[in-house]
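Sample A.
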Amino acid sequence: MTPVLIKLGYLAAAVCFIFGLKQLSHPRTAVRGNVVGSVGMLLAIVLTFLDHNIVRFEFIAAGLVVGGVAGAVLALMIRITAMPQMVALLNGFGGGASVLVAGASMIATQVVAGVPEGQLQAATVASGIIGGVTFWGSLVAFDKLQEWLLPGRPVLFRGQQPLNVLLALVVIGLGTMVVLQPADQWTYWTLVGVASILGVLLTIPIGGADMPVAIALLNSYSGLAGAATGFVLNNNVLIIAGSLVGASGIILTQIMCKAMNRSLANVLLGGIEAGAASAPKADDIYAGKVKAASAEEIAMLFDNASRVVIVPGYGLAVSQAQHAVRDLTTLLQSKGVEVEFAIHPVAGRMPGHMNVLLAEADIPYDKLKEMDEINPTFAQTDVAIVIGANDVVNPMARTDPTCAIAGMPILDVDKARTVVVIKRSLSPGFAGIPNPLFALDNTLMFFSDGKKAINDLIAAVKEAA
């Protein structure tokens, strides 16, 4: 195939990526967007095979088989609640691949053509730095979410920030040496090692509440590492694809920070825990004020209700209650009750977490209302049902300027006539602070597993009929 046709094919693949990303922005077109993006990637892979002199196709085939099997197994095994961990791993693999490919290309270039030019070395350095930070930072994010070795809370120690600055300066110095002395391959791998340490230290201060932002940022890093590797390989489609991923990750990171009223620097420095120590004690807020209710008592609220808003949170994901919620929605609608869902941008552990769960249960997309659209309507809501959400409905964000989530936009469920909160206990959310919503006069607590609670409500509503 001629170089002109290959470049045109790469252009077609890039167009597929762009349209695929555009269609992923809405649940109705997300499946089609995945297909379009996959077609673009398949086209890019085929053209790459035709564009370069592949020496040993059997190794590529072996890699495709191993990677395909591993991907299929993970896709079938990973629960939706563990999807953030899966995304973190995928980000890390992308960064690690960029490090290895850039390093191998540098070695191959020196063997075939002698000392490579400065532009190529600069791209190699960028791949090594960003890829190293991404790989190890993503592994730390995975471990924090999975809670294997590292705690979900921020890990801080004295002199942490000066050490990070020192490591960054060392990385820059090593990168300069790689560009000026490209024949020394060990300098590159030393650079990767220092960048890896920096990736760990940059991620451990980030707490569980901020992990969705960290994942979005690491996703952007993996794209930028891929784009840099595209320059190393002189592969236009990899440059375009990496740039798209990098840009979309940065945009998503900004959206997430805005949704939490936080700066990116505050997130990276683990600032959300700063106010936790001075937060009011749970006993002072809850003592003698929390009202527990049964399924039968809550079912009576629906008899005179005309509008119900359901607020999904991470507890809904953990209990896999989305199908039970759909059944409750159908039952209430059959009684003439209007039911809608209030979606907070950072509910759950990753962007779109609640949307994916509810879409899995075939809940109509037009029932899912974003925060800005649903908040003005809570005053006209008869019953708001909060399932496993905590920080995103905590009124302290509006009333206490010293708390960890001060200023964060929240769902105004406290303005509904009656609020039903379904939780296992009064335990705090990721921010680690109590929630005055649980003690309000118009709030009823239903202490139970999310799925069991919804099924009990369904049975109670049917029995009352």
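Sample B.
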Amino acid sequence: MLLYHANPGPRFNYIATYFIEELCGLKLTITSDITEFKAHRGRSVCYNDIKLGDSLHISPHGLLEQEGIAEQQVLLSTWNDLPCFFATGGDIPFDIFSASFYLVSRYEEYLPHTRDMYGRYAHANSIAYRNNFLELPLLDLWALELRKMFGVSITDMIPGKRVFRFVPTYDIDMAWCYLHKGFLRNAGGMLRSLIAGDFRQLAKRIDVLRGKRTDPFDVYEWLDALHLKFGLKPFYFFLVADRNSEYDKNISPRKQAMRSLISYHAAGYHTGIHPSWQSRNDEKKFVDETRQLADITGAAVMHNRFHYIAFDLPGGYRKLLRNGIREDHSMGYGSINGFRASVSSPFPWYDLEEDRETELVVHPFCWMDANSYYEQLYTPAQAFAELKSYHDIVKKTGGQLMTISHNNFFSDEPGFAGWKEVYEIFLDEVVYWDL
């Protein structure tokens, strides 16, 4: 596809390349030469105030030509039954590139906003939530409509683009429920069970510690069997805080059991750092934890997911880049499910303050069990329906469905009945048909 813009800048080049090549799957050439553009005999888009020839005309809104960050007027309308904004007068009734840039750059997160109880960008600030399209991978859907307009077939597309992928991921915040916690933590747990009169829980803990039953959170072999059955290539993110705190409760990475667990998964799967809450505002701790994980796995740490999905832009992503991490898996909310950047497909992070594309690749997720359970108060059946709906819409666009699960949700601990079965049913009844 040939795309004309009289004076393309870094914002335009970034979003046009991402939208056309990654989301539409078409090879893109950008030109500012009118003669070259008018002589072109293939698919073409004119990004200009005035339409040139018979090409598809997209009239600029102005965001991509601006410098700096300023409040934008966002008024919702519709195009082909999809929400859109930044209305203009082209063949498409809005500036699809400016609207996409606004969403995928997370422009609104650089503007003044309120924070939630954990100090994070509150999802209620977002235009996607306020306008009821948080559950839509809107950029993927816009791209699908554009492909239809151009009559794009699979043979026209870049090989490997727009191929649906399901990528399960697991945050290992608490590797075991009872094992390897040491005398004091287990003694405290027994005492609490005694005070509460919960003798069943007390007996379970004693049986696990005596080796008579498997630890409830030890579901790793069960997961291995599922991954093998469905040919899945998951990611595991390990919390390796040197000491515990209110929000950091994993087994110490100094313990051999924990080191062995991490080494085992690193040998067969993708692994990454799950930085502790303590390291959120302490980069030295973050560096120490990534070094600890690298020492255990024997490889540089390239993947990250922030604990509690707690990070700020641009600071959080710049910290990753400074420390050699090139893949982030935190683009979603820790308070509600949906598409935080309104896209399911991975994208290079654009540092809006510096107005430049970076080397960091962002992998959005749209569903996390903890959001369904703790925040949305869903039953396992409701969570299954939600997860299936995300699967169906992402598959329709040829995007990437990334989910987050926690090993403790697959246990038989109080409150988690049915969640293990829901995950297995999802793989059996939904993912099976993707094979």
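B remarks: The first strand starts at residue 2 and ends at 4. The chain has 14 helices and 15 strands.
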